[in-house]
Every structure is written in C-alpha cells, then in structure tokens.
Amino acid sequence: MTTWLVTGGAGFIGSHLCEALLARGDAVRVLDDLSTGKRENLPPGAMLIEGDVADPATVRAALDGVAGCFHLAAIASVERGVTDWLGTHRANLTGAITVFDAARPTRIPVVYASSAAVYGDAATVPIVEAAERHPLSAYGADKLGCELHARVASHVHAIPTVGLRFFNVYGPRQDPRSPYSGVISIFCERIRRGAPIDIFGDGGQTRDFVYVADVVTALVAAMRLAPADAPVFNVCTGTATSVLDLAHTIAELTGTLLDARHRPPRAGEIRDSTGAPALSRRILGLADPLSLRSGLGKVLDWMGGAV
Ligand code: NAD
Ligand code: UD1
Fold first, then answer.
1. For the segment 85-112, what is each residue's pLDDT rounded down to a tens digit?
2. H helices within the chain, ranges in order?
C-alpha cells in the first residue's frame, strides 16, 4: 500500500487532501502540531504524529517509508506574520527546509504549498507564474524562500519538488472563529446570522477564490509529475472578486441585510491578486474550477444554511 506524509494534515486544506488520498485506498500519515489544525478534522484512518515540522528528528521519523510528502504545515496567515515575524518564519521557512533536508537520503518527491503572496503587488493581472516576485509580507517572503530552497533540493540534492502557489482557498472546515482565518469563512459565518462584518480598507481589493476540492486535485496531480527542475504553478481560477462584491454575494445567497463596517487597511496587504490558471491547467491537467457561487453554497450548507 502506498503511504503519504501530509504535514499540516489536521488543517483545513490538509484534511481534505487526507480524505482524498484515503478514498483512493492509500495510507496517510499526518505530521501536525495542532496549533491551528484539529484532531477532529482528521478522517478515520489517518495516522497522526503530533509534532513540529521544524524539528529534524520528528520529520525524519515521519518520512520513514513514505512514497512522497505533501508539505502543507505552516502558519497560514499574512496577518500573523506581521505580529510574530520570527515565530512564523520558523514554521514557514525552517519547516520547509527541514522537510527537504529529511528527504535527502531517499529523494522522495515533495509537493509543497507556496502562495500567491510571493508576487506582492503584481504589475499585471491575471498574474502568470513568470511574473516578478516582490512579496510585501513576511509570510510571502518565507513562501518565496520555500521556492528557492526547493530549487536547491532539486538541483543540488536530486529531490523532485513541485511548488503550488495557492491563491485564496476556501471551503468547508476553514475555521470561521479564528480571526486569522480566510475572509470567506469569516464573512459566511457572520453574514448568515446578521452579524456585522469588518471590511479592511475600501473593500475594492480583489482576490482569486479557489475551492478546496480543486486545490486537492492540483496537489494530487502535482505528485504524479516527479520533475527534476522544481517547477511552480498557480492554483487559481483566473476570476477576480472584490471583498465588497464577495460580501454582497453572501448576503444575497443568505437573504440577509449586509451590515459592514470599514476598518483601516491591513499592513502588508496586496491590492489585486488574481492568477492566470493556463499553465497549471495544461501541465497538471486540471478541469474548470468550481464557480464562486457554487462554492459559497457548499460553505453555507456546511455551516447549516442561513439562520
Ligand atoms: P491551516 O492553518 O488550516 O493548516 C496548517 C496546518 O499546519 C495546521 O493544521 C497547523 O496546526 C499546522 N502547523 C502549523 N505550524 C506547524 C508546525 N510548526 N509543525 C507542524 N504543524 C504545523 O491552513 P491551510 O489554509 O490549510 O493552509 C495549508 C497550507 O496552504 C499552508 O502552507 C498555507 O500557507 C498554504 N496556503 C493557504 C492558502 C489559503 O488560502 N488557505 C493560500 C495560500 C497558501
Ligand atoms: C490568503 C491566505 C494566505 C494565502 C494568500 C494567497 C488565509 C487566512 N490567508 O491571504 O494563506 O497565502 O491568501 O493569496 O486564508 N478581509 C476583510 N475582512 C475580514 C477578513 C479579511 O476585509 O474580516 C479582507 C482582507 O483585508 C483581504 C481579503 O479580505 O483583502 C482576504 O483576506 P484573507 O482571507 O485574510 O486572505 P489574504 O490576506 O489574501
């Protein structure tokens, strides 16, 4: 039986990936420190090692006998990188290097989560993979660092790696109660019960919201590539949605009146972030992504519908 290691497997995206791998009959080992992840996110059959992805001995033990590693463990919040620069750096970049280093003896493939945050404020949208990378946040800088070290892993140590630059991922199980969670989970949870939402800045900033099942498909497809040249791909839809439009769409879907308060813009905030999906669709063989309205419907269903 093929066994995979999923770091961050008790988190939002990781738990959906574990489910998909188990559903096709593979075995799954998870390394997670449960800092934002939850034991109850893990599907039955996933084996949890509770530990730190930046600890070399823990990671070496976790990698023993696996066919490949999906490296998703990170502090996934741009905002947290502002307040805890060093702490997030340890999880986000030292963690990735620790995984690459531990993969050296067996040269198992590593598919890792990068982020659209590596681009910073791109001159042209939709953003192609070859665009300049000028991260505006510690989080984005560390994700760019992951990509650079993945090149070292491939070129110097012959470890196949694929980096996936996720844009804004959303779906069931994204924790709406964490202030560091994604905007869709926060807005859906609040708007559906008529509670006020905060809009940082004028709400005109745009994001490319990609549904979690489409991200899982991209992760699984990337593991099949086993390339030698450390490629990176956007995982996105190509559709721009402003934060304000998002809020109005959720209000419309839930039949509630929008109560929005404007707050100062966040530090390190990107204005427009929409990806060009052509390359990943071609090389990873991805189908058309789920529409935002359909995906929002799934999130609202998971939350229990409008109240
Ligand atoms: P998440 O917080 O739900 O999952 C991250 C998981 O990593 C959690 O289970 C957490 O407990 C674990 N973790 C954190 N630090 C750890 C450490 N030091 N050792 C072991 N485990 C640790 O977030 P997510 O949204 O599922 O993000 C998964 C990955 O995708 C992250 O690498 C994130 O940076 C990346 N990403 C997410 C998005 C998004 O929109 N959600 C976009 C771009 C990239
Ligand atoms: C998100 C991801 C990050 C990823 C990046 C890639 C999360 C928590 N963060 O960052 O991991 O690398 O996408 O593009 O999923 N907003 C509000 N009100 C709120 C919450 C947010 O107006 O209550 C706004 C933010 O200011 C921002 C937008 O919504 O403009 C999206 O914010 P957020 O969901 O936190 O994600 P990003 O910062 O884009």
1. 999 999 999 999 999 999 999 999 999 9
2. 12-23, 56-63, 78-83, 85-89, 95-102, 138-157, 183-191, 212-223, 243-254, 278-284, 292-303
Secondary-structure class of domain 176-208+239-275+290-303 per CATH:
alpha beta
Q: Ligand 2: distance of its center to the CA of 183 in Å?
A: 6
Q: What pLDDT was estimated at residue 306?
A: 52
pLDDT bracket for residue 179 (50, 70, 90): confident
> Model pTM greater than 0.90?
yes
Residue 139 is among the residues annotated as catalytic for this protein: yes
DSSP string, 125-144: SSBPTTS--B--SHHHHHHH
DSSP designation for 118 = G
The domain segmentation of the chain, as residue ranges, is 3-168+209-235, 176-208+239-275+290-303
Catalytic residue, from 112, 139, 170, 211: name it.
139
The domain made up of 3-168+209-235 has a fold known as Rossmann fold (3.40.50)
Residue with the nearest Cα to atom 33 of ligand 1? 76
Rounded distance from Cα 77 to ligand 2 centre (Å): 8
- Which of 34, 169, 184, 216 to mutate for ligand 1's pocket (most ligand atoms within 8 Å of CB)? 169
Distance (angstroms) between ligand 1 centre and the Cα of 9 equals: 8
> Is pLDDT at 307 greater than 70 in this prediction?
no
